[in-house]
Amino acid sequence: MKASVEWLKEYSDIDIDSVTLGDILTMTGSKVETIDQLGNDIKNVVVGKILKIEKHPDADKLVVTKVDVGTEKLQIVTGANNIKEGDIVPIAKDGSELPGGVKIKTGKLRGVESCGMMCSIGELNLTLADYPNQIEHGIMILDKKLERELGKDIVEVLNLKEDIIDFEITSNRPDCLSIEGLGRETAASLNKPFKNPRKNIDEMQVETKQELEGLKVDIEAPDLCYRYVARMVKNVKIAPSPEWMVRRLKACGIRSINNIVDITNYVMLEMGQPMHAFDINSIEGKHITVRCAKKGEKITTLDEQERQLEEENLVIADDEKAVAIAGVMGGLNSEIEADTKTVVFESAIFYGGSVRKTAKKVGLRTESSSRFEKGLSAENALRAANRAVELVELLGAGEVVEGKIDVYPTKQKINQIPLDVPRINSLLGTNLSKQEMMNILKQLDIKVEKDMAIAPYFRMDLEFVADIAEEIGRFYGYDKLDTTLIKADTTLGIRNKEQNIQKKVKEVLVNSGFSEIYTYGFVSERDLELSNISEEIKKYAITIQNPLSDEYKLMRPTTIPSMMQILATNANKKNQNVKLFDLSRSYKDVKQEVQKGEVPLQEEILTVGMYGEDIDFYTLKGIIENILEAISINHYEIEKETENTSYHPGRCANLKVGMDTIATLGEVHPEVLDNYMISKRAYLAEVNITKLVKYARANKKYTEVPKFPAVERDIAVIVDEEVEVGQIEKMVTRKAKKLLESMQLFDIYRSEKLGENKKSVAYSLVFRDKNKTLSDEEINHTMEAIVSELEKQLGAELRKE
Amino acid sequence: MEKEIAEIKENSIKEISNCREEKELNALKVKYLGKKGELTVVLRGMGNLAPEERPIIGSLVNQVRDELETLMKEKEKEFKRKELEKKLKTENIDVTEPSKKVNLGSLHPITQIIDEVEEIFLGMGYQIADGPEVEKAIYNFDKLNTPPDHPARDLQDTFYITEDIVLRSQTSPVQARVMENQKPPIKIICPGAVYRSDSVDATHSPVFHQIEGLVVDKNIAMTDLKGTLEMFAKKCLGENTKIRFRPHHFPFTEPSAEADVSCFVCGGKGCRVCKGEGWIELLGCGMVHPNVLKNCGIDPEEYSGFAFGFGVERIAMAKFGIEDMRLLFENDVRFLKQF
Prior knowledge:
The complex is a heterodimer of chains A (about 800) and B (about 350). In chain A, helix 6 (about 245-250) packs across helix 7 (about 260-270), helix 7 packs across helix 10 (about 380-395) and helix 14 crosses helix 18. By secondary structure, chain A is α+β, with helices and mostly antiparallel strands. Chain A has 6 domains: about 1-40 and about 165-195, Phenylalanyl-tRNA Synthetase, Chain B, domain 1 (2-Layer Sandwich), CATH 3.30.56; about 45-160, CATH 2.40.50.140; about 205-405, Phenylalanyl-tRNA Synthetase, Chain B, domain 3 (3-Layer(bba) Sandwich), CATH 3.50.40; about 415-480, Phenylalanyl-tRNA Synthetase, Chain B, domain 1 (2-Layer Sandwich), CATH 3.30.56.10; about 495-695, Bira Bifunctional Protein, Domain 2 (BirA Bifunctional Protein, domain 2); about 710-800, 2-Layer Sandwich (Alpha-Beta Plaits). The model of chain A has no long low-confidence stretch (mean pLDDT about 95). Chain B is of the alpha+beta class. Chain B has 2 domains: about 1-90; about 110-335, 2-Layer Sandwich (BirA Bifunctional Protein, domain 2), CATH 3.30.930.10. Chain B has 13 helices and 9 strands. In chain B, the strands form 2 sheets. A 7-stranded mixed beta sheet of chain B has the order 1-4-5-9-8-7-6, sandwiched between helices. A two-stranded antiparallel sheet of chain B has the order 2-3. Chains A and B meet through helix 8, helix 11, helix 13, helix 14 and strand 27 of A and helix 5, strand 1, strand 2, helix 7 and strand 4 of B.
């Protein structure tokens, strides 16, 4: 909300500069966004009179003038051709400053001295809208009357000085979307009396009539329209508004149209009540109805756009058609025209929620709708209507018809809140007396009667003790509040198991050279295709109703596309050796929870992605195993996975802990790599942290260091190429029972001698009994059992040198 | 005999000290101390001596023997040292050649800020809470005093899945869930991703991260909020950081405030980061609205509380001097490795 300081001065004495004023208001809650100090950037520009114009001796397009600036006569060279002798013009003298930091100095133009410059409106930062009689390219020609002001500062003569403060108004304070409201805040903030210039309006008595010159009003939807006040003006003379009004409108960012329309805007800015004026002649049956739109009803609004309405949208209608979208914008069909003779001023109150919905539906957020949607005071509506017709009289714009129409089915409730002094003090942490509190409230027009604070009609936001506490707090001064520490029982600040596990996991990855990435949870259908995501997973994706774009339409059911995209970004930037991880979520609507209004499955997923030199499947597997080790998961199985379409079918595995598949890891499918234009082999792992946590231990447990010696035995077996070493390991482990401490694969050997499709796999086995020294006999026995199991189950052959 | 011993001693000491290499020394060992060594021979010849002379000569020989052994050991050490010195000389390396380190990875700047904030609040006895990102509207709005027609529902430009399910536009729904499930005292912070319908540019992102805090207990006052945030600001942004409260409005707190901190880049003198104002808007906060407490099953007559929340990216950008928010989500390793 923009406000000129000059206008605010009608409501409160302001004897400080605008910057200080802005600082004070910011600290009481009306935050200043910007301060525009117009005219401050014009210095030493004065009123001058052109005495003589002569041709420039050396330039056809220049003239040499003699100008009277009161104290002296100056020679000025100019290229302008709209001047004549006797004209009064603005003169920027030697050493003057113009908007934009332009400095004017005496200099020579084609050899002739010029002691300054004549200014155009643009050079003074003025526009044709402000001075319609001027021309854009040429010197500003001032009123002849200003001949008396020769040598005087142009800023003062044209009254160019104006400070405009733009405030950020919070949604609970629609009353401050008005100069009156800001004026009240200003007076209270400066601790000065609020000068109410609208006292006459507050006291005005106007008779309520059933009809005004045949005009009747009905509210069909009293739950959406709380009050409708109409006042009428006859014999209207549509004309431009006076300069002071144009100027104030402009300061608040509103363009002048004509006197009647300007009055509605002026009252809205002044009092915060949006108004609408329409031509009575366009009201069929002279009957206004506030009703909901009919099915399929359309209206062309003042901006000449046709708008489709829905049945929940409120309209102002005559007997045949809608003439305005209530609280949003008037209809073109009832617009004020140059020949309008009888005008109706509408000052109504609509339910904010409805206006908000309607404005959103028709895609039109106006000064009016943005005020209504915050909830406006019905008591203010009558004041605004009366103020509008007062302005009509002031401007001589027409003849005000006696009486008003005032349909007011639900009277505004005035809130009374207990002035609970101890509670307010305990909430704020202050120690204020009741009297101190009452002094603050008085400044804000909040009366206290019998320990009840009575909210003024324009403060509908005050409902609870907490609201009163805020008023007291902000005028006592938030900066004066102490800083204290909570006086309460000590609480334990510790991370829970999942949080600890996540921290551990990240630690392992960072120490292994991986960089953490952050990705959006959004994906597109195309992303899912690029990553070859299966139909089964795709159907779990959750669709956003109002996405920013197709690219961000779905909540990802898998994190693969997000990681692939980042790998692609890095590959595209020619980054070598890229190792990344992302700890974020996947979102899966597995059981149609969303349609039932329930939250869908959201699991914490660790995604690892990498490519580069010396990186292969086993590098990735090592990282995953290190992670498991760090969180004390020692029992897991790795099984080949051939069905997952995002991965290389021969180079992918699932990792199982207990009954759960915790992770999938492997080389990215060449097709997927191709889709992302990555030319190197890349590796990917997804680890379901949510599932992993229940198996993990964040804290290590000590087991005794062995006392009895270990026995080491090597074994090498020849098996078919298809036999996975994992199978061998499983069998060895099973047969060796508790005696096997570890087994280490140390060689896989292939040769012609072994034969085609054969490999020799060699392990070093370590046996130990934690209660005694193992005998050779025991070991031999176990080894025999292992070998015979391998022979039987896998067709293995013991390799002898 | 004594003369003979003295002679041996004198000669051997001379020879030992003149000895130049280990081999020579070993020969001397044999020459004097070996089985047929000169001293050994003297010892053997003691049988010819008178019995009363024997112990005298015996101890004299042993004394000389000990002396020689010590000298030889020293000499040996000297040779070893010399040898080692020679060897070490050949092993000289260029210490300025590149190292063979295991490259470290990096935590994302967003994580680093979240971690730092978490540590500060853990130290003050807060717990860390989390909740769904795809969330019920009732938790994102209704319970937080933002009923269906409330203008805030528009202002935030929420992403909707259905009318009842949204992408959380703030981490506050976590607070509502905690209040419903836990009796006061409650002291939590909730870091996490939030979603708002803002197009991507240098200062906006449809996904960003927030950290919110909530305290509910008996007699919690606004001065406690101010004290807590001041302590946090000093720890997170530097001991000289000042904090300033300005009145503001949020549906879920009353009284509400925005907290500014003195610019941690220029210290309040005014710079590009604080746009010359000396203050940086840090967070929104306030006393939990009685309706919010009530909606979550906590009696506002008995308990009060405060809440605060801020955006992580903004702090990360200011602290690390990152000018474009898009860099945080582009994830170029050359960017990531800098943190």
